[in-house]
Structure formats: structure tokens, C-alpha cells
Design a protein that fits this description.
Layout: H1 2-10, H2 12-27, H3 33-38, H4 44-54, H5 60-72, H6 86-121, H7 126-138, H8 143-157, H9 183-189, H10 193-230, H11 233-240, H12 245-283, H13 288-297, H14 301-329
Helix pairs in contact: 2-14, 6-7, 6-10, 6-12, 7-10, 8-10, 8-12, 9-10, 10-12, 11-12, 12-13, 12-14, 13-14
Length: 337
Amino acid sequence: MAFVWKRLLGTLPSLAGIVVITFLLSHALPGDPAAYFAGPAANDESIAQIRAKLGLDKPLIEQFFRYLGDLAQGNLGTSLTTGQPVLHDLLVRLPASLELSVCALVFALAFAIPMGVLAATKPDSWVDHLCRGSITVGSAFPTFFVGLLLVYVFYFLLDLAPQPVGRLNEILNSPPPTVTGAYLVDSLLAGDGATFRAAAGQLVLPSIALGLFALAPIARITRAAMLGALGSDFVRTARAGGLAPRTVIFTYAFRNALLPLVNVMGMVFSFLLGSNVLIEQVFGWQGIGAYAVSAVLASDYAAVQGFVLMMALLYILLNLSIDIASTLIDPRVRFEG
């Protein structure tokens, strides 16, 4: 546990820097939140009154210390666009983004790992070139373009996918009782098979569009790690001992290739959370990405700061989990330094 505490303490300077930079960048956004909140018919006097009410007429340093004081009490402020506490907005929307990112990562792992292993077992063959070429082409397009293309083909032309209206078509299905916030999990806990199938159907296209983005790094790391493991002495010894090729590949080589794969998975999951911003806009997904876009467009300082701070905390917890997983996979890995 010592290295866990060391890692947590080591994140404090990063968090302090994130708080300062986020505050300064959010106040550098174009637009006047007081004017947005007052509405198009407001005059200068009413805008000035709202600016004073929000504390935006105070010096920047005073606003910053007031922000720190609220932050110390767990208060991220109130969103101008929704009128709700920012923390409440983020906690309501976060499960939607996490559910989408996890499904996209599962899709990417289901295809990238077998392709990486297959390419490594037949290096420089047509199988290797086909796997690498397919992965490169699949991940070469922007996620929002892939999302729009999938909607056009599978919903508009073929009518195979549900309407892209977010997590659930609430005209046909009611959301399950909230336990975790993830519709798949909550519908299973409620024993509601119809809602589970509807929620899973809504997840297919955005998960594929987002998962294609993650295919290339996972497949390439898998291939490189497997090539290194297959060329090592212990694998040659295992082959000389007469072990079956399947045993050599999956029991000896793949197990030793897991460490770099787990490390890159953490980085990829972070990228997926960030890429949600575009995919959620395309599919009408009610996650924190769409919330952040609305906040930026409205110069909603509190919402932008809360979003960035929450993402930073998620990245820190994710990296800590990866470090712990690395020590479990390979006991030689230690992080005392």
C-alpha cells in the first residue's frame, strides 16, 4: 500500500496545476456569461446586475480564491445553462460516458488483441500485412465522420440500427431505476430484458465509431509485445520442450505481453473519454462530453471547470489502477521509486 499512497501524494501538484490552469483558461473563453444568462433582450443595466450577482465584476484573483473556497467544500458552483449544481450535473451524466467508453474499449479489445496476436505469429506474411492494413484504414478516419457514416448506412439506408436519439428511445422504453447510472447494468439488476436490449442497441453504433479509434494502438502494442515475447529465450525453451504451439503462445508469450498491453489500455481509455465529446454530439448521447460542449459555447465557467477537474481526477484514478494492475501481472514491477 505504500506505493499507492506515494502515487496519490504525487498527484497533488498536478491537481493544483490543473485547478489554476482550468480557472484561467475558462475565464479566457470568448463571450460574456452574464450576457448569455440575461438573454438577447437584456440591456446593459440588467447584464451588469447579473454580472455583479455572479461575482464576475470582482477582480480575477478574488474570484479565484472564492473558487478555491467553494472547491474545498465540494461545491463546484452552479451551471448557468442548466441551473443545477455542477457536481450534480456531472454525476448524472458521467455513467453515460463511462458506459459508452467501456463498450468501445471492449469492442476494440475484441478485435485488436486477436489481430495483434495473429500478426505476431505470422510476421511479414500476407496475414500480418492484412491485419496492419485493416487496422490502419479503420482508425484513419475521424470519429465523428465514422459515426455519421454508420448512422447513414445502418439507420438511414438499411434500417438495421435504432434511431440515434441518445441512450434510449424514451418513447418506446422507460429508463431503468437508477442504481449505477449505466442503463445496461441497471436494466439487468431490474430484470428488464426489453430495456436491456434497447439500451444495448443504442450502444452499438457509437461504440463501434469510438472503438475504431482505439484499434490501432492496442493492436500495434499487442503485435510488438508478442514479437518480443515470441523471440525470447523462455519461449524457445518451451518450444524445444515440445509444448503445443497454442500453449506456447497463450500461456507463455501472451502472458508476458500483457504488461505493455495493460499500460496502453489505460492511455487508450483516457483518449476514449476525451473523444466522447464528438461522438456524444453525433448520437445525441447525454454524457459529460455533450455537457462540456454546451458549457463552452455558453461560456459557463463553473461547468467547464467542473468538467476538466472531474476528467483530471478520472485520469489520475485510472493511472493508479493501471499501476496496481501492473504489479499484479508482473511481480517484478515495483513503484517504490
